[in-house]
Amino acid sequence: MTEKQKIFADEYLIDLNATRAYRVAYPNVKKDDTAAVNGSKLLRNTKVTKYIQERMQERQQRTEVTQDRVVQELAAIAFAKATDYVTIKSHGSAAVVMIRSTDDLTEEQIRAIAGIKEGANGIEIKLNDKEKALELLGRHLGMWNDKINVSGNIDTNNPFSGLTTEELKKLVSDG
């Protein structure tokens, strides 16, 4: 691997932006289109790919950030319920909101909390974005597919296979 390829790979590892990384490694390139094409080519280079994979594996071991941990964190957010944090009790004709002590919460419940503050109306608990966490989990699990795959076989024995759209329309209208 060349020194410039190593610079590209190290820069790519920062934010996974091949265009930006290419422009850092090859500063004479001025056009983003050129950097995007060449950055994409470098990502297909076996030496560069191997180096990036090794560095990512090292980082994963060093930081202990794994796909499983990310999915667990998203699941904690996605499946948190407001009733995990508060209890509503009737007090005569009024309702009283009782906030659970953080000592009584599980680690999973604590991970779903975005913040706790004392506001004008008392203590406020803000949970992380449940909808976003569900969306990310769904994507990870392949539940949403934004792509449509169209496939099929063309029968070479089809007598209409060589006809244009106009010729086919004429056949249908004459038929």
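(the above was protein one; protein two follows)
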Amino acid sequence: MDAKLLSQAVDLATANAAAGQLPFGALVARDGEVLATGVNTALRDNDPAAHAEVEAVRAACKALGTLDLRGAEVYSSCEPCPMCRTVASAAGIAVIWYAARARDIPELGYPVPPVDFSAQWVETDGATAPFDRYLAG
């Protein structure tokens, strides 16, 4: 854990708040080198997935030309939500260091309150065809 990198994530969040955006910032680093940064742009972009950690991981993958960020770490201004944890994990990141705990965040009026949600499988002819086509090249 690098305290300077964690402070940098907090600074990104503070600058984002000063710009009228949600106060979240993050960066991806490997061996002490910052690979990319991200801030929450959900309000500006009307994008519920535009969390700081997600943006930082996207930027790092794009900059490096890979989906594999193994060996990198995320430094976040705030405890990551399940989506941010999942994106980091999908990129091979094993740890997210964070500054503020979720329970310490005041009500920001965002995100939209949770609703009952389910994902339901429906048996569908040809459902595996896209995968077969991909593997066929």
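Reviewer note on protein two: The chain has a mean pLDDT of 95.
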